[in-house]
Amino acid sequence: MRKFSTGFELSFLALLISFTVWWLGSAERIGLEIEKLPDGRSMIYIPSAPSAWSGVTQILPAEQITYIDVPATTVMELTEKYGHGVDSILGCKQKNSSPDE
Prior knowledge:
This protein has three helices and five strands. The chain is an alpha+beta fold. The chain has one domain. A five-stranded antiparallel beta sheet has the order 4-3-2-1-5. Strand 3 and strand 4 (55-60) form a beta hairpin. The longest helix has 9 residues, at 72-80. It starts with 5 loop residues before the first helix and ends in an 11-residue tail after the last helix. The relative contact order is 0.23.
């Protein structure tokens, strides 16, 4: 598993992204907030398994985001383990405002 520098860990906030898929219904994914935009939306990176270095970026509204109080490295490590152990972070949900606010 890759290790991340402290600078990386401090730069991004971990979060859960809520969305609806017509055949699945409501779902959540773990990801990272890369940047908070002036209009309140966020640039999000959603890592893919098994390589957390591969993923997608999306701009999402605040109502689809729930911050979780875990290091960014935890999100990346869980992704590389195909999500195994995600229950350890689900109890760390915060309000929709970022922890820095």
